[in-house]
């Protein structure tokens, strides 16, 4: 895609700090560096989000995540955890419409990164939960 910033980074048309690259992916530092070592893993094939991956592309991209995550963690003894995020759609905070996986090293609960999850325990009845599960299962069949 000609106007995609990640496609331009993949082609090295835009300066970037690459930490890993092969035929399927490029892993490079996010310019924002939410925490030191914040890395993006980007498939070289332009897909907008998780919904556009086929099984083959998913296998080739996602199998690299643990290897790169371990390398980041092992690079700095101060890293005590890591958030791995894949945002899909603007409502889910995706800002570049080329699928990318964030690896955000964690150093403490004061390192500049946070996530807030609502606790909706008990708001749905067991019957409502089963209806949701059945609707999802129906789309997994076939």
Give a quick set of tags describing it:
142 residues; methyltransferase activity; 27% helix; EC 2.1.1.-; transferase; HIT-like; alpha+beta; HINT
Write the layout of secondary structure elements.
Layout: H1 5-10, E1 18-21, E2 25-29, E3 39-43, H2 55-62, H3 65-74, E4 81-85, E5 101-106, H4 126-140
Antiparallel strand pairs: 1-2, 2-3, 3-5, 4-5
Notes on the protein architecture:
The chain is of the alpha+beta class and 142 residues long. The chain has a single domain (5-140), classed as HIT-like (HIT family, subunit A), CATH 3.30.428.10. The protein is built from four helices and five strands; from the N terminus they run αβββααββα. The chain has helices at 5-10, 55-62, 65-74, 126-140; strands at residues 18-21, 25-29, 39-43, 81-85, 101-106. The chain has a five-stranded antiparallel β-sheet, covered by helices on one side. A hairpin with a 3-residue loop joins β1 and β2 (25-29). The mean pLDDT is 96. It comes from Companilactobacillus baiquanensis. One of its GO terms (biological process) is methylation. Its EC number is 2.1.1.-.
In short:
The protein has 142 residues and is an alpha+beta fold. The protein is built from four helices and five strands; from the N terminus they run αβββααββα.
């Amino acid at each position: 895609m000609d106007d995609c910033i990640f496609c331009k980074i993949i082609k090295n048309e835009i300066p970037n700090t690459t930490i890993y690259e092969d035929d399927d992916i490029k892993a490079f530092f996010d310019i924002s560096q939410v925490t030191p070592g914040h890395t993006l893993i980007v498939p070289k094939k332009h897909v907008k989000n998780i919904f556009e991956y086929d099984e083959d592309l998913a296998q080739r991209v996602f199998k690299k995540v643990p290897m790169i995550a371990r390398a980041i963690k092992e690079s700095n003894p101060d890293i005590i955890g890591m958030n791995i995020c894949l945002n899909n759609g603007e409502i889910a905070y995706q800002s570049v419409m080329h699928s990318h996986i964030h690896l955000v090293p964690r150093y403490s609960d004061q390192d500049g990164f946070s996530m807030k999850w609502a606790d909706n325990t008990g708001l749905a009845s067991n019957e409502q939960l089963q209806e949701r599960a059945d609707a999802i299962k129906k789309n997994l069949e076939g």
